Amino acid sequence: MFGAFRASSVAHGGLLWKTPWKLSTTRKANVRSRLKKVDAVIEAVRASGMQCTALAKALELPKEHEMLPRDKYTVFSPHARGYRKGVHKVPKWTRLTLRTNPEGF
Amino acid sequence: MTATRRGLTTAATNTPESLTHYKITLRRSAISLPESFKATLVSLGIHRRMQTVYHPHTPECAGKILKVKELVEVENVPVSAVRTKTEQRQERKAMRGYKVVRSTLS
């Protein structure tokens, strides 16, 4: 149990990467900055005056300042306890739209 | 910060030149995203990060931009600001030759 040859995750597997369960202050600031940049893109397309389905859908998304912290930093997960998990657990999360929740969640 | 810059761009519409083109710059790569994202970028004429392309305002182009909205940065520009790839490269280039600032002999 103790000593140099004790059983641990690292000793067994060799390499161990841990993902923190919540985002740090800096990572949350980066999330907000990315959300704002996407808002700017949607705003630029809206300002161009074009009409299309994609724009109608994009305008339905909540803006960064309208979102609750809960929606910014966590996402719905059917398997997680409380139906929420950190947004950083989603693969490719920095380049995906993860702003809305399913009905009732 | 970016939002303020957008606001200024929009405020500049009262100048005689109307904004007719999208200036699209790829900021984030589509590596390891679904093929459809890469295909959208190819159809916009973008094949590397930080590349800038110009497209006239059309609903088709607007839809493509919104498909890859997490990856690009978009600005509305007038026709006079549109640059081809060659012109962009020319603008980046340093001036040829040199200029004499002062002489140490006199």
UniProtKB/TrEMBL annotation, chain A:
Location of this chain's protein in the cell? Mitochondrion
Keyword Ribosomal protein part of the UniProt annotation:
yes
Q: Which GO terms describe its molecular function?
A: structural constituent of ribosome
Transmembrane stretches in the record are none
What does UniProt give as GO cellular component? Answer: mitochondrial large ribosomal subunit
Chief subcellular site? Answer: mitochondrion
Is Ribonucleoprotein set as a keyword in this record? yes
Keyword annotations for this protein? Answer: Mitochondrion, Ribonucleoprotein, Ribosomal protein
Gene Ontology process terms (BP): mitochondrial translation
Family annotation (InterPro entries): Ribosomal_mL60 (IPR016340)
Quaternary structure, from the entry: Component of the mitochondrial large ribosomal subunit.
Protein name according to UniProt = Large ribosomal subunit protein mL60
- What species is this protein from? Thelephora terrestris
UniProtKB/TrEMBL annotation, chain B:
Q: Which residues form the Large ribosomal subunit protein uL30-like ferredoxin-like fold domain?
A: 22-72
A single cellular component GO annotation: large ribosomal subunit
Is Zinc given among the entry's keywords?
no
**Pfam families xref list:** Ribosomal_L30
User: Which molecular function terms from Gene Ontology are attached?
Assistant: structural constituent of ribosome
A Gene Ontology biological process in which this protein takes part is: translation
* Keyword field: Ribonucleoprotein, Ribosomal protein
Q: Would I find ATP-binding among this entry's keywords?
A: no
Instruction: List the PANTHER family.
Output: LARGE RIBOSOMAL SUBUNIT PROTEIN UL30M, MITOCHONDRIAL RIBOSOMAL PROTEIN L30
Q: Which family does it belong to?
A: Belongs to the universal ribosomal protein uL30 family.
- Report the protein name in the record: Large ribosomal subunit protein uL30m
Q: Which organism is it from?
A: Thelephora terrestris
The beginning of the lineage is:
Eukaryota, Fungi, Dikarya, Basidiomycota, Agaricomycotina
